[in-house]
Amino acid sequence: MAQRLVVRRLLSLTPRTLPTQGPLAPCAPPGRPFGTSASWRSTFNVQDGSDFQDRVVNNPKPVVVDFHAQWCGPCKILGPRLEKMVAKHEGKVLMAKVDIDDHTDLAIEYEVSAVPTVLAMKNGDVVDKFVGIKDEDQLEAFLKKLIGA
After folding, report:
1. Which residues contact 38 (CB under 8 A, 6 or more apart)?
2. Which of 75, 78, 86, 139 is catalytic?
3. Would 1 be classed as within a structural domain?
4. Of 5, 8, 21, 62, which residue is most buried, by most CB within 10 angstroms?
5. Residue 66 lies in a domain
6. What is the pLDDT at residue 149?
7. What does the pLDDT read at residue 76?
8. What is the pLDDT along the chain (149 residues), one digit of tens a residue?
9. DSSP one-letter string for 92-128
């Protein structure tokens, strides 16, 4: 009986009326994807230029910026590999994903001429960069250099 009441209550809620705390609250913060891994905490999609400014340029933590495209085969290989490596560092570094078709202005500003292009940013400055696919050992070395470990 209690289960039916909870289900009925959940079905009656709209996104605007979802509780933010308690047993009916979503498992992930608003605007964040649901997932079972820790990568959702360290990886995010850039929404627009001001979001990039706030979450990448002004971030006190180092940020890896993955410029990619949906149609790019190598991007589909590198993206998940890079997310996995960033997640292993448990919040010491973040990963911003920028789709160049949606954010051409950012791609032009950061002189992205091919995808995938990955930038390492610290205190708003680009400190390292690579273009193309890297294996896990190369990605680990890239991240350690950025973090300073």
Report:
1. 87, 90
2. 75
3. no
4. 62
5. yes
6. 53
7. 97
8. 555 544 444 444 444 444 444 444 444 444 444 444 444 579 999 999 999 999 999 999 999 999 999 999 999 999 999 999 999 999 999 999 999 999 999 999 999 999 999 999 999 999 999 999 999 999 999 999 999 85
9. SSEEEEEETTT-HHHHHHTT--SSSEEEEEETTEEEE
Which residue among 56, 72, 82, 95 is the active-site one? 72
Flag whether 6 is in a domain. Answer: no
Q: How many Å apart are CA 46 and CA 35, to the nearest integer?
A: 18
75 is catalytic: yes
Q: Which residues of 36-51 are buried (b: 16+ CB within 10 A; e: fewer)?
A: eeebbebbbebeeeee
We report the CATH number of the domain holding residue 88 as 3.40.30.10
Residues shown for the chain: 149
Residue 115 lies in a domain: yes
Which pair of structure tokens corresponds to residue 143? 């991240």
Is the whole model's pTM more than 0.70, yes or no?
yes
Domain region containing 103: 37-147
Assess whether 72 carries a catalytic annotation: yes
- Of the candidates 113, 47, 118, which has an alpha carbon nearest to the alpha carbon of residue 81? 118
